Amino acid sequence: MFKVSAKIEYGLRAMILLGQNYNIGRLSLSEIANSEKISKEFLAQLMLDLRKANLVESYKGITGGYSLTRHPREITLREILEALEGPIQIIECIRGSNLCEKQNLCITKNVWEFVEIKILDLFNEITLQDLITGNIRKEANILL
């Protein structure tokens, strides 16, 4: 079974909440955790990953909290996913250091390369703003 990780599920929900508050102000870790029903400890790790990827910035002090580094329309779904889980790779054998001994003869290699390219294209096309406004049709890979 293919399953989205908790890091992606909760990290994406936190990013959507920050995007909804983009021009309003910063949100504290507690506000995000309470709103999205995420433990503060887990959320702190997610925010650290997102901050390392320069998607969010954090502020200390009484008016501290988190905010996006860019407008939601400038942040792609791919950036968020890769900040949370690392590079998107659907199967290890098509690139990287774990190349298969059959790579030059593999019947399925072209299929996996094609599928990965399509997934990456789609994730590059979908922005955080699209997720916030719901401008994605559920029945197709088409943005409205």
Shape: elongated
Number of domains: 1
Per DSSP, what share of the residues sits in E-state strands of 2 or more residues?
Answer: 5-15%
Largest sheet: 2 strands, antiparallel
Radius of gyration over C-alpha positions, nearest whole angstrom: 18 Å
Give the strand order, joined by hyphens, for the main sheet: 1-2
CATH superfamily: Winged helix-like DNA-binding domain superfamily/Winged helix DNA-binding domain
Task: Tell me which CATH architecture applies here.
Answer: Orthogonal Bundle
Q: Encode the helix/strand succession as letters.
A: HHHEEHHH
List segments where confidence is low: pLDDT < 50 over at least 5 consecutive residues: none
User: What integer is the average pLDDT?
Assistant: 88
- The end-to-end distance, rounded to whole angstroms, is 29 Å
What is the count of β-strands? 2
Written account of the structure:
With 144 residues, the chain is mostly helical. Helix content is 47%, strand content 6%. It has 6 helices and 2 strands, in the order αααββααα. It has helices spanning 6-20, 29-36, 40-52, 77-85, 109-125, 128-133; strands at 56-59, 65-68. It has a two-stranded antiparallel ribbon with strand order 1-2. α1 (6-20) crosses α3 and α1 (6-20) crosses α4. The longest helix has 17 residues, at 109-125. The model has no long low-confidence stretch (mean pLDDT 88).
What are the key terms here?
Arc Repressor Mutant, subunit A, 6 helices, mainly alpha
